[in-house]
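Exercise 7. Given the encoded structure of a 426-residue chain, write a plausible sequence.
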């Protein structure tokens, strides 16, 4: 039997099909999502607080597949958007405008107008953007993003709080904010923050929660207080990395907001804004091994999983667990150091470096685990490769296509000169 599929085996991740069958049916590389895992994560997050105003605001930049958004909505989560594209996706998934918050950064008047016209509450994160929103929507409601001066995250590229990041309005800018609000007759209806992505201990998050609640006491018009996301997941499951303690986090959060609301008489909403925690673990990406070779001491398994498909390992040196599947199972045997690489023409195209794994063979199917967040969402058409298909394994274990693989027609469709000659076809 397979020594390197314990994690997905335990979840019955692929339902009624094997990973080999999924690749045969839908092609390779392939993103596969499991509905049960997704629903479980939604429920865990909703259970963090029993306060009646508590909402989980899914940060859709992690994964905006329409079918997944529909499931997330059916679990009672609301959603954030940060581009016109995300607004369009959310509306198509059935979210109503009061369920969408626009949390943007450095956008045009036109974009602000688009969000306002859709009836969304908009959060701005600088004084000039606040002024611009005032011009676009005088007399309206607005939310501002505060930079609490506290940061957290798995890599410096994803720490969003603190003085060295581009985000948020500083806590000392209160007077300037008031002047701009007054100038445009705006009402400050919400505060939000986001300190960064991926914490495994709740301490700095809770520190930031307390900070934002102190800030909130200076305003009596608030309807929403949004503490941001960043809830981490264990990427090293084969090393038994502990999970973030959601029960302890929930106790602290629930207690903190409950006491604060009681003391201040606040009866608006409290939100958290997780992306990764909602979708990371419900997704894997499957690829196929095409060539195995030794370059000197190094053993390379060459696959179709390049950083066009999964960018995280290259962008952040991120670690994803690897599983190996073969028709007749991967035998219990000695492991060896192997480096899993993709098919992109850069030597940095490394998915997993020097891993101790059972011997990988040509024809094997490889899974990169925990790829449901910032996986497909960050994929690209670099080297003019087509973006992969996405498949859902539903509650009953049945699989279905939820995004078709891109085609060569999709690739060429944006070139007007090509379209003129061919009527748009390859
Ligand atoms: N709210 C705001 C305003 C954000 O900018 C983000 C993520 C979130 C919420 C959700 O954060 P999460 O719960 O997913 O940590 N591509 C990187 C992560 C970038 C996060 C960007 N902002 C990665 O793959 O690790």
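Solution.
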């Amino acid at each position: 039997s397979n020594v390197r599929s314990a994690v997905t085996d335990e979840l019955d991740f692929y339902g009624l099909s094997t990973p080999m069958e999924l690749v045969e049916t839908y092609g390779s590389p392939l993103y596969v999502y499991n509905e049960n895992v997704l629903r479980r994560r939604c429920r865990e997050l909703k259970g963090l607080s029993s306060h009646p105003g508590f909402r989980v605001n899914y940060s859709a930049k992690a994964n905006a597949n329409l079918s997944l958004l529909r499931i997330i909505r059916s679990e009672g989560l609301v959603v954030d958007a940060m581009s016109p594209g995300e607004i369009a996706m959310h509306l198509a998934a059935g979210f109503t405008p009061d369920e969408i918050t626009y949390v943007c950064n450095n956008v045009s008047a036109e974009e602000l107008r688009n969000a306002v016209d859709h009836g969304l509450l908009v959060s701005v994160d600088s004084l000039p953007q606040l002024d611009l929103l005032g011009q676009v929507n005088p007399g309206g409601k607005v939310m501002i993003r505060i930079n609490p001066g506290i940061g957290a995250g798995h890599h410096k590229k994803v720490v969003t709080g603190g003085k060295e990041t581009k985000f948020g309005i500083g806590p000392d800018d209160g007077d300037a904010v008031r002047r701009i609000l007054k100038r445009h007759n705006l009402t400050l209806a919400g505060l939000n923050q986001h300190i960064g992505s991926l914490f495994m201990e709740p301490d700095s998050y809770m520190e930031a929660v307390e900070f934002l609640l102190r800030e909130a006491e200076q305003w009596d018009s608030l309807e929403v207080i949004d503490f941001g996301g960043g809830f981490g997941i264990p990427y090293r499951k084969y090393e038994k990395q502990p999970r973030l303690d959601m029960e302890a986090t929930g106790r602290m959060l629930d207690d903190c907001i409950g006491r604060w609301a009681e003391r201040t008489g606040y009866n608006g909403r409290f939100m958290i804004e997780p992306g990764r925690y909602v979708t990371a673990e419900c997704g894997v990406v499957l690829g196929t091994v095409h060539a195995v070779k030794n370059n000197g001491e190094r053993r390379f398994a060459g696959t179709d999983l390049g950083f066009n498909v999964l960018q995280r390992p290259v962008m952040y040196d991120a670690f994803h667990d690897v599983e190996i599947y073969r028709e007749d199972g991967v035998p219990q045997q000695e492991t060896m150091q192997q480096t899993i690489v993709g098919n992109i023409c850069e030597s940095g195209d490394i998915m997993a470096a020097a891993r101790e794994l059972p011997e990988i063979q040509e024809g094997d199917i490889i899974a990169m685990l925990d790829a449901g967040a910032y996986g497909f969402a960050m994929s690209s058409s670099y080297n003019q490769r087509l973006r992969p298909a996405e498949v859902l394994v539903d509650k009953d274990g049945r699989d279905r296509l939820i995004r078709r693989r891109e085609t060569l027609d999709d690739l060429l469709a944006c070139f007007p000169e090509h379209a003129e000659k061919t009527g748009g076809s390859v």
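Remark. Residues 246-264 form the longest helix (19 residues). Students should compare their own answers with the one above.
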